[in-house]
Design goal:
4 helices; four-stranded antiparallel β-sheet
C-alpha cells in the first residue's frame, strides 16, 4: 500500500510575536501536535525540535520538523484545509525565518 509522506522543516526567528525563539518553538510544537488528528487519513504525525535531536547527539540544521504520512493526497488536503491548520499557518508564518517542504508517495 502506498502512502503519501509530508515533511516540513522550519527555522524560527530569534524574536517574533513578542516572544523569544524557545517560547515560540514550544508553542509551535504544541499547536502542531494538536493538529495530529485533523484528517481521518493521517497515519503518522511526528513533531521534533532540533534541540531534541541534538540532545541525542544527532545533527539538526533546522529548529523544528514535521514528519507525517497520509493515506493519499485527499487526506493531506483535508489536513491542510482544516480551519485549525489554516489558523496555525498564520502563527507559523509570523515566527519563521525559513521553511522547506517536500511530499512524495512510496
Amino acid at each position: 500500500m502506498s502512502t503519501l509522506k509530508h515533511i516540513v522543516m522550519w527555522k524560527l526567528l530569534d524574536q517574533a510575536e513578542g516572544a523569544d525563539k524557545a517560547t515560540n518553538l514550544r508553542l509551535m510544537k504544541d499547536k502542531l501536535l494538536a493538529c495530529a488528528q485533523l484528517s481521518p487519513g493521517t497515519l503518522r504525525f511526528e513533531v521534533v525540535t532540533g534541540a531534541e535531536a541534538q540532545a541525542q547527539g544527532l545533527e539538526a540544521t533546522y529548529d523544528i520538523v514535521l514528519l507525517s504520512e497520509f493515506t493519499d493526497k485527499a487526506a493531506l488536503d483535508a489536513y491542510a484545509d482544516h480551519p485549525q491548520h489554516v489558523a496555525l499557518k498564520g502563527f507559523i508564518g509570523a515566527i519563521r525565518e525559513a521553511r522547506q517542504c517536500m511530499d512524495w508517495v512510496s
